[in-house]
Amino acid sequence: LFLATLTYDTLRFEYEDFPETKEPVWILGRKYSVFTEKEEILLDVTSRLWFTYRKNFPAIGGTGPTSDTGWGCMLRCGQMIFAQALVCRHLGRDWRWIKGKRQMDNYFNVLNAFIDKKDSYYSIHQIAQMGVGEGKSIGQWYGPNTVAQVLKKLAAFDTWSSLAVHIAMDNTVVMEEIRRLCQSSLPCAGAAACPVLESDVLYNGYPEEPGLRDRLVLWKPLVLLIPLRLGLTEINEAYIETLKHCFMMPQSLGVIGGKPNSAHYFIGYVGEELIYLDPHTTQPAVEPGDSGCLPDESFHCQHPPCRMSIAELDPSIAVGFFCNTEADFNDWCQQIKKLALVRGALPMFELVERQPSHFSNPDVLNLTPDSSDADRLERFFDSEDEDFEILSL
């Protein structure tokens, strides 16, 4: 009992309720009013999968850490943004988690994909070990770009979700590349370990849906992650309006980023504040119960979410979007094009039909801040993040 009461006491602040404001609250593409829809706002937030530090899980790699406290917050944020993609893919954006209510099997399938054990698709074990290939030792800090690259590699093995994951580098989204990726007829190009074409049985023995193969040929659901630098040491104010618009799009998966050395999963905004889920709480690892059912309450944040001023955001982030169909992607492209016309909103990235020819020039890809700037920066992004082009007015 004592352990259970510790879980939330480790938080360093009190949770405030939403401010009484006329400003709309935006949560992952949904608009709410604080005055008339407070319950709906809280239900939407609580329904997101909330991944925090855990302790006493099986050692990573057999002999590594059994807790990710102090180093795993960006990995947990990566899990949260990806879990939101899986929720949209398998349950839909309108799905809600209600405490004590029996959930459908697909919900547990999604949750099981993130449980802290080595054979879950997107477990902390898989992310930490796959990160070694990205030059990160187990227990080392990740930036938004590294976690995005690792999740992309892991998604290739998730034949149940059969996602097309695209990471748009150098602040440029190339529509042609995405269409080619999503229209590929192989359910998981690039993953040699995918027996899907021969087998009628998918993940954990669940039979595939009727018509699944036909649909795969047409369009694989897209997870689009865009790592960005929105300034040097602090966010350039000119991007704030555009960042807000990202949370207004129905395709929004939110944003991973945070403050220096402290990662958060941002799911919306109200006024000049971002709304986020915070992974910095250590909870005991969860074991399936006797019935094989997973106790899931600790994976849902049941208090009002945290808020912080947009101006405090570290400039190194990754923005996420989910396009279930080709029509969703076309709609997203139209919204991004319209956003370029909004006064006072500087585009955070460029949307182009095909790869610009200058991309083949290696000098263009390596615009780094000069070392005197770099020395001054109190920042948490990776060596990879230093290769980003710096966006400026």
From TrEMBL:
<keyword id="KW-0813">Transport</keyword>
<comment type="similarity">
    <text>Belongs to the peptidase C54 family.</text>
</comment>
<dbReference type="InterPro" id="IPR005078">
    <property type="entry name" value="Peptidase_C54"/>
</dbReference>
<dbReference type="Pfam" id="PF03416">
    <property type="entry name" value="Peptidase_C54"/>
</dbReference>
<dbReference type="GO" id="GO:0015031">
    <property type="term" value="P:protein transport"/>
</dbReference>
<dbReference type="GO" id="GO:0031410">
    <property type="term" value="C:cytoplasmic vesicle"/>
</dbReference>
<dbReference type="GO" id="GO:0019786">
    <property type="term" value="F:protein-phosphatidylethanolamide deconjugating activity"/>
</dbReference>
<keyword id="KW-0645">Protease</keyword>
<keyword id="KW-0496">Mitochondrion</keyword>
<keyword id="KW-0788">Thiol protease</keyword>
<dbReference type="GO" id="GO:0000423">
    <property type="term" value="P:mitophagy"/>
</dbReference>
<dbReference type="InterPro" id="IPR038765">
    <property type="entry name" value="Papain-like_cys_pep_sf"/>
</dbReference>
<keyword id="KW-0072">Autophagy</keyword>
<comment type="function">
    <text>Cysteine protease that plays a key role in autophagy by mediating both proteolytic activation and delipidation of ATG8 family proteins.</text>
</comment>
<dbReference type="GO" id="GO:0005776">
    <property type="term" value="C:autophagosome"/>
</dbReference>
<keyword id="KW-0963">Cytoplasm</keyword>
<keyword id="KW-0378">Hydrolase</keyword>
<feature type="domain" description="Peptidase C54 catalytic">
    <location>
        <begin position="39"/>
        <end position="335"/>
    </location>
</feature>
<dbReference type="GO" id="GO:0034727">
    <property type="term" value="P:piecemeal microautophagy of the nucleus"/>
</dbReference>
<keyword id="KW-0833">Ubl conjugation pathway</keyword>
<dbReference type="InterPro" id="IPR046792">
    <property type="entry name" value="Peptidase_C54_cat"/>
</dbReference>
<dbReference type="GO" id="GO:0005783">
    <property type="term" value="C:endoplasmic reticulum"/>
</dbReference>
<dbReference type="Pfam" id="PF20166">
    <property type="entry name" value="ATG4_LIR"/>
</dbReference>
<dbReference type="GO" id="GO:0005739">
    <property type="term" value="C:mitochondrion"/>
</dbReference>
<dbReference type="GO" id="GO:0005829">
    <property type="term" value="C:cytosol"/>
</dbReference>
<dbReference type="GO" id="GO:0000045">
    <property type="term" value="P:autophagosome assembly"/>
</dbReference>
<protein>
    <recommendedName>
        <fullName>Cysteine protease</fullName>
        <ecNumber>3.4.22.-</ecNumber>
    </recommendedName>
</protein>
<dbReference type="GO" id="GO:0004197">
    <property type="term" value="F:cysteine-type endopeptidase activity"/>
</dbReference>
<keyword id="KW-0256">Endoplasmic reticulum</keyword>
<dbReference type="GO" id="GO:0035973">
    <property type="term" value="P:aggrephagy"/>
</dbReference>
<dbReference type="GO" id="GO:0016485">
    <property type="term" value="P:protein processing"/>
</dbReference>
<keyword id="KW-0653">Protein transport</keyword>
<dbReference type="InterPro" id="IPR046793">
    <property type="entry name" value="ATG4_LIR"/>
</dbReference>
<keyword id="KW-0968">Cytoplasmic vesicle</keyword>
